[in-house]
Amino acid sequence: MFSRWTSVALLVGLTVLGGFAAGTIGGGEPAGDAGAVEDEVVRDAGAASRGYRFLTEKPYLPIDFTEEAFAAIWQSWPEPLRSEAAAMTPEERRRVAFERYGLTERPLTEPTGDERPLQYVVDAEGQWTMNCFSCHGGSVYGTPYPGAPNNGFALQTLTEEIRRTKLRIGEPLTRMDLGSLLMPLGTTVGRTNAVMFGVAVMHYRDEALNVLSDVGPPQFTHHDMDAPPWWHFYKRPNIYIDGFAERGHRGLMQFMLVRENGPEKFREWEADFRDVYAYLMSLRPPVYEGPIDERLAEQGRVVFEASCAECHGTYGAESAYPNRVVAIEELGTDPVRLAALPAAGRAKYGRSWFAHAGEPEQQQTVVEPDGYLAPPLDGVWASPPYFHNGSVPTLWHVLHPEERPVVWRRSAVEIDSERIGFQIEEVDRVPLDEPDIAVRRQYFDTRQLGKSAAGHDFPSALSEAERRAVLEYLKTL
Fold first, then answer.
1. Nearest to 133 by CA among 227, 68, 240
2. b/e map of 128-152 (b: 16 or more CB within 10 Å)?
3. Which terminus of the chain has a smaller tally of CB atoms within 10 A, N or C?
4. Contact, 252 vs 273, CB < 8 A?
């Protein structure tokens, strides 16, 4: 559940998860001349290819677990699933495990016979290390797609069951196994508490990423977030839902601040992340392959440009993205994320190595944003659920605020082709008597802290015919 940590628990948790390292990048000065390099890198197709390989082949974090542990994890499953798994072949058990934890196979462009998940680097010794695709490499209605939000990732469940497996087979526990006992990794499938992890580990570093040993624990509220699609990266000059940080290759490295990675590691890996930046800049959304009523979609375009484009931009040959933050009082969506990031933490980021990449002046950091950044909508049909907390299952529900479900879960992999988004089951409450916690975590309860589906009521001003037309238009983006 969400809570504020006690001082002792927080200090122990952050010691395990990260933030204690040695080394220095002198005086907070940038470790290399990266300023004007970004545009050049973006134009280099080779850089984008290298960036993808770095993400999938090079571990930047310590090992999470071994192939042996993953192969044995089924023995930690609850009944009757464990007995069913015992009768399966190893290949069948692996497929079920991938489905249980929201792991996907690598795209078909990968070498034939590659059974490694997209979300982990797996080396020749069978050591698994989480990569950025854990949150940003999911599937589009069952088809693996790097850059799509991983709306099926069950990190907390995976970590808990890996921990039990390690204890059974005698494999050493690692930072995730121990840290997750104190810091919730995600309370609903497909959402994570990653933002607060980033705040926590940065709290124990100075602006040059040196360790601070004389600071007290940070105060913040844990909350789940829905990862954004990476195919928006090239359009957005600012990142995060409140848009407080400018886009840059160093900013991509924040989540590597575990205790084993000192400042010298960031200097060593910076060239890698220029290529990762180029890879993200190269990503584009998938194209909707279902039927589209072109006449209705054109009507929807007219309504959209009159009613929605001011915040979300225009599309097509003359596209434009306004990069607009909408005040929380006007937007009305769940405010927990906005309040959870302290102004002092944002300001510290703005002074840090992450926000200084060799440009003449430091990047502009918004210390006290007053709302959320309206995202681009390219490929919006392919990235449910919606809102920053993943509280709304379909675009139809976005357009019908009064009809949004209170408690729901995804019921099928395939698209809801009528409402565009997840096929869902609505229930009165989360079934707490369900013995499998992985099943309980599939349910999204909008009454919980940080999970509200309220707000963004602007579509209520449209007629039903206009909403239907806008929904058709959104398929074309």
1. 227
2. bbbbbbbbbbbbbbeebbbbbbbbb
3. N
4. yes
Identify residue 365 by its one-letter amino acid code: T
Would you tell me how many other CB atoms lie within 10 Å of the CB of residue 223?
A: 23
The structure tokens listed for 201 are 């580990």
For residues 446 and 443, give the distance between their C-alpha atoms in angstroms, rounded to a whole number: 10
* 59 vs 141: CA distance, rounded Å: 28
DSSP letters spanning 344-395: HHHHHHHHSGGG-SS-SSPPP--SS--EEEPPP-TTGGGS-SBTTTT-B-BH
pLDDT digits (tens, 9 = 90+) for 167-206: 999 999 999 999 888 888 999 999 999 888 888 888 889 9
DSSP 40: H
Report pLDDT for 6: 34
Bigger pLDDT: 30 vs 124 = 124
Phi, psi of 442 (to 5 degrees): -75, -20
The whole-number pLDDT of residue 363 equals: 62
- Is 444 within 8 Å of 409 (Cβ atoms)? yes
Q: Both tokens of residue 83?
A: 């007995």
Q: What single-letter amino acid sits at 26? A: G
Of 2, 157, 10, 14, which Cα lies nearest the Cα of 77?
Answer: 157
Span 72-88, mean pLDDT? Answer: 97
| Confidence label for 318 from pLDDT (cuts 50, 70 and 90) | confident
Residues contacting residue 174 through CB under 8 Å, at least 6 positions apart: 62, 63, 64, 65
**What separation, in Å, do the N-terminal and C-terminal C-alpha atoms of the chain show?**
37
Give dist(CA 243, CA 365) in Å, integer: 9
DSSP conformation class of 176 = H
d(CA 288, CA 286): 7
Model confidence over 344-386: pLDDT tens digits? 889 999 999 999 876 555 568 899 999 999 999 999 999 999 9
414 three-state secondary structure = strand
Query: Which strand (E) or helix (H) includes residue 458?
Result: none
Q: Please tell me what DSSP assigns to residue 249.
A: T
Long-range contacts of 339-346 (CB under 8 A, 24+ apart): 339/221, 340/195, 340/196, 340/220, 340/221, 340/223, 340/450, 341/195, 341/199, 341/220, 341/242, 341/244, 342/199, 342/218, 342/219, 342/220, 343/367, 343/368, 345/199, 345/202, 345/203, 345/218, 346/244, 346/245
- Strand residues in 28-152 grouped as ranges (E): 65-66, 120-122, 127-130, 137-140, 143-146
Q: Are the C-beta atoms of 259 and 179 separated by less than 8 Å?
A: no
| 27 pLDDT more than 60 | no
- pTM value is 0.89
Amino acid at 27: G
